[in-house]
Amino acid sequence: MKEGASIMMRCNWTLKETELLIEYYPHRSTKEVAFITGKSISQCYAKAFALQLHKTPEYLATEASGRLKHSRVESQFSQGHTPWNKGMKGLDIGGKETQFKKGHVPHNHKSVASERIDEDGYTYIKIADPRKWVLKHRYIYEQEHGTLEPHMIVTFRDKNISNFEIDNLEAITKVENMQRNTITKYPQPIRETIKTLNKLWHAIKSKT
User: pLDDT, tens digit, for every residue of 34-89?
Assistant: First the structure.
């Protein structure tokens, strides 16, 4: 190992800790989530990134997020400040030849319903202008079954990410997806036992 190199310690999360993260991370400060889960702030950020968790727009619009405070400070001018463009109204500095006319559509514009494939092979579909793209398989599933909660994802039953048949799409939680990816290292009998226990746990939870 090179001098000065550091060793990153693996942080193991229990199922309960992961559920707490999923429940509280989107709408609470990461400092609070760290206290609730018993993890460090950096560990919470790393786990949230792995689970594709994001803060909700409602939380980001609050004082607790810190964004409002920073945006106000950064946008305030000190007393006596002279705007950089004072006296420049109507000034012609050229460049009109290269400016886009109103209504101009760039040559690389993609129309609604266009598709693109990312570096991992997943297909995205454009559902609105100017640049609103969503995962095609999630979009197809939601058109059939309704909008999913943020903690839900859509997977492919046959593992073929190009098979968009509705019967091949399955909605599961991010925790379940993590468990599936974790149990693949075990022999088939153990994997089946874990799946059965998970189904039993969900059945019990739905009745409590």
Answer: 888 888 888 888 888 788 888 888 888 887 766 555 455 555 556 666 665 666 66
What's the CA gap between 110 and 122, in Å, rounded?
A: 18
Residue-wise pLDDT for 124-151, tens only, equals: 988 888 788 999 999 999 888 888 898 8
Cβ within 8 Å of residue 118, ≥6 positions away = 124
Q: Which two tokens stand for residue 39?
A: 């993890």
CA proximity to 155, closest of 173, 179, 133? 173
Q: Which tokens sit at 115?
A: 């598709």
Name the residue among 140, 133, 145, 148 with its Cα closest to residue 165. Answer: 140
- The residue among 191, 179, 207, 197 whose CA lies nearest residue 22 is 179
Measured between its terminal Cα atoms, the distance across the chain in Å is 52
Contact 59, 65 (CB under 8 A): yes
Q: Could you give the CA distance from residue 135 to residue 115 in angstroms, rounded to a whole number?
A: 10
Question: How far, CA to CA in Å, does 165 sit from each of 38, 140, 162, 168?
Answer: 42, 9, 9, 5
Tell me the two tokens of residue 54: 């994001």
